[in-house]
Amino acid sequence: MDEDRTARGAASGDASTDARTDAPTAGSVGGDGYSGDVAEGGASDARVLPSLVIRKASVGSMDNNAYLLTCRCSGAQMLIDAAADAPRLMCLVREGSPASRLDTVVTTHSHHDHVGALAAVVRQTGARTAAGADDVAAIEEQTQVETGTPLSDGDVIRVGVHDLQVIGLRGHTPGSIALLWRGGDDGDHLFTGDSLFPGGVGATMGDADRFAQLIDDVEHRIFERLPDETWVYPGHGADTTLGAERPHVPAWRERGW
């Protein structure tokens, strides 16, 4: 079974098996009307903040989320996960820059459904590339795209005037990362790849050691450090907040997935 599909089915419950009454509502961060509800082939959703625009689109048959961050001060752009459907991703890039400016592509982890359009997007834009150091070899083997910046927990990567903190979340893959933008009055925004979803952490394929590593990292590096209002942008499906998920973390640890 594909590990990324398992990640969403097990952790987020395919929605129907893990329905949540405490899920975030549209506009609940910043009153901006953003909900994060997107569908393959459909329109992007955009969160327009004073200095940063966050756009979300669904691409590919596995409902992968791609996120475009546009610095409103400089025009710089960062794409998180060039997952699939390069033409749709280039449309997303042009939503933020009619000239197709793309400065950086960050890959959250090495699974095939998160790198399917990486080569095409980099070829068309000349964007720099970055990914978790321990996933670089696997990404390069699949895509033949060199990773310009290997990232580790605690690193910082910039888009325009904005710093994003790199958080290592080992377990789903050895080099899985999340990116955190701390926007002050505009809130905390966390892009988690396949390491954290509504309803649980990402799949570790029944490996107890991998699960222990991932749940420990998620608990200590995310839930112990960040407030409930932090908005979570996962690699598949619906968004959530840390406050919606925090009460359930002990149950995730107990069930072992």
Describe the protein's architecture and organization:
- The structure is a single chain.
- This protein has 257 residues and is α/β, with parallel strands linked by helices.
- The two termini are 16 Å apart.
- It has helices at 3-11, 86-96, 118-125, 136-143, 208-223, 242-245, 249-255, and strands at 45-48, 52-59, 64-71, 77-80, 104-107, 128-132, 149-151, 156-159, 162-168, 177-182, 188-193, 196-197, 200-201, 231-234, 240-241.
- The protein contains seven helices and 15 strands.
- Strands 1-2-3-4-5-6-7 form a seven-stranded mixed beta sheet, covered by helices on one side. A six-stranded mixed beta sheet has the order 8-9-10-11-14-15.
- The longest helix is centred in the C-terminal third of the chain and has 16 residues, at 208-223.
Structure summary, number of beta strands:
15
What is the H-and-E element order? HEEEEHEHEHEEEEEEEHEEHH
| Biggest sheet details | 7 strands, mixed
Mass-distribution shape: globular
Strand order of the largest sheet: 1-2-3-4-5-6-7
Please tell me the overall pLDDT.
91
- Looking at how many chains there are and whether they match, the oligomeric state comes to single chain
Query: Helix segment count?
Result: 7
Q: Roughly how much helix do the residues carry, as a percent range?
A: 10-25%
Structural class: alpha/beta
Q: Strand-residue fraction?
A: 25-35%
Low-pLDDT segments, ≥5 res: 4-21, 25-30
Q: Roughly how many Å is the radius of gyration?
A: 17 Å
Distance between the termini: 16 Å
